[in-house]
Write a structure and sequence with these properties.
Helix content is 39%, strand content 15%. It is of the alpha/beta class and 309 residues long. It has two domains: 144 residues, 3-Layer(aba) Sandwich (Rossmann fold); 151 residues, Aspartate/ornithine carbamoyltransferase (Rossmann fold), CATH 3.40.50.1370. Bound molecules: phosphoric acid mono(formamide)ester (CP).
Length: 309
């Protein structure tokens, strides 16, 4: 197979196993490109991409922009904080105004779940979801699986626990879909209040004891508590959360085996992860960020190939 089964990347839910394999194979090529002295290819000289960020981002925004520039695409950036959205303009009007400037592809982060799906039905451009509320963050899940594959050889058969605020996490849902498609076993671990009620229906194991979860897994993906999506208190105090669900070096050293630690960022050092773990050889956090550029180059390149047909 040499093309994706989809015209947009709206969520991992819409991909199949072959799509993921094709994205990884293409990312392998681009990873080699970005390690060359000249890190750029002319592949997308005829493509214009708009990055629309209606919610804060550091890694995803910079990573997409770098990926687009490495592919030689023309890039425009939009941030809602400085835009006419503040004057009452709708999402569709905003995007259609941008598209009238002959934009081929839109990368969008938005606080509302389903914003990307909605947009894909109303505008003529290829849409990439860069995170929609607590729903999906597909490129994050792809770069996470790609990083596991790089570190452990393959994703199939690996045991991965996602720890923390599962309830408010788009990273968790996209990772569950992506890992299961590739044949990994997935567990979620966190306080009961931060685990969605029917999460087991997704075929994941559920654990509230962090030590048990870490003893089970090959990889632990540590999530941040998403205070910005919380209107009530889900646990008594940050100190108590850290005591029960934070990883530290002493805890990792007391396990039967050495596990791999991941984090999508941004990290809250001293809350879900201590600095001595985040900066240790067991953590592949900066590898994840580096792989994000190659993965996003692959996704953009493969979707742009479909526009050109
Ligand atoms: N991992 C992630 O999405 O980070 P940003 O919010 O900084 O983009």
């Amino acid at each position: 197979m040499s093309e994706l089964s989809v015209n947009h990347l709206l969520g991992i839910k819409y991909l199949n196993k072959q799509d993921i394999e094709l994205i990884f194979k293409t990312a392998d090529h681009f990873k080699e490109v970005i390690n060359r002295p000249i890190k750029k290819v002319p592949s997308l000289r005829d493509i214009t991409i708009a990055n629309l960020f209606f919610e804060n981002s550091t890694r995803t925004k910079l990573s997409f922009e770098l990926a687009e520039k490495r592919l030689s695409a023309d890039v425009i950036n939009f941030s809602s904080a400085q835009s006419s959205v503040k004057k009452g303009e709708t999402l569709i009007d905003t995007v259609n105004n941008i598209l009238s400037m002959k934009v081929d592809m839109v990368v969008m982060r938005h606080p509302n779940p389903g914003a990307g799906v909605f947009l894909s039905k109303h505008v003529k451009a290829s849409i990439i979801n860069a995170g929609d509320g607590a729903h999906e963050h597909p490129t994050q899940a792809l770069l996470d699986s790609y990083s596991i594959r790089e570190k452990l050889g393959e994703v199939k058969g690996k045991k991965v626990v996602i720890v923390g605020d599962i309830l408010h996490s788009r990273v968790a849902l996209s990772n569950i879909y992506a890992l299961q498609l590739q044949g990994a076993e997935v567990m979620v671990c966190g306080p009961k209040t931060l685990l969605p009620k029917y999460i087991d229906k997704l075929g994941v194991k559920v654990e509230t004891n962090l030590r048990k979860a870490l003893n089970w897994c090959d990889v632990a993906n540590m999530l941040r508590v998403q205070n910005e999506r919380m209107e009530i208190n889900y646990f008594p105090s940050t100190r108590e959360y850290t005591q029960q669900f934070g990883v530290n070096k002493a805890l990792l050293d007391s396990l039967d085996k050495e596990i791999t630690i991941m984090h999508p960022g941004p990290i809250n050092r001293g809350v879900e992860i201590t600095s001595d773990v985040a900066d240790s050889k067991q953590a592949i956090i900066l590898d994840q960020v580096q792989n994000g550029v190659a993965i996003r180059m692959a996704v953009i390149y493969l979707l742009a190939s479909k526009i050109k047909q």
